[in-house]
Amino acid sequence: MARLRASFPSSLAQEARSLLNGDLRPNERARLRTVALADEGISNDEIAKELRLSVNTVRMFHSRARIGGVQALLNRKKGGRFRQHLSREAEATILERELPKAKEGAVVVVSEIKQALEQAAGRSYHLNSVYRLLARHGWRKIAPRRIHPSQQPNAVEDFKKSGQKSWPRQRRKPKRRGNRSASSSKTKLDSGASATLAAAGRPKASGRS
Description:
Mean pLDDT: 78
Shape: elongated
CATH topology of the domain at 10-73: Arc Repressor Mutant, subunit A
Helix content: 40-55%
Largest sheet: none
Structural class: mainly alpha
Order of helices and strands: HHHHHHHHH
């Protein structure tokens, strides 16, 4: 025995028919047709046969339409910033406050921007997230050149013109090497060893000339 189906609101069926006239993907068109055909009194078994779907799939599409409307049957766009704390417009508004300082050549402190973002969003920001936010809006890090306060530009230019271009290379002193032992033996005798013990391994000299 077929299960009874709850009736659809007429507004859902009308919205589904209006969307069917637009440019849709094949799977989106099939989902919307399940609602339009159900409004005409066609059973779920017949809808499943006509659209080549299972009966459980037809019931699932009907449940989505009742809960989230017909828009729930359309494909969701992939990607995006689903965990964003602030919109791009709100981020740009906060960065515009620091823009005059940057145009005048002043140093913009990232910690101040981080504090302003946390106050606007009501949540904490990681420092890496702040740097990604700046890169997303076209900001880049520029470090000022280190200059000594008492540096004299004229003296620097004079040194570049008349200063020594290179310094003489210092020769390294050769390392002293000790006298090598004439013996090839790796072992050494103790100083207290007798001369007879040292000469024990030598062959006796023959009397022949």
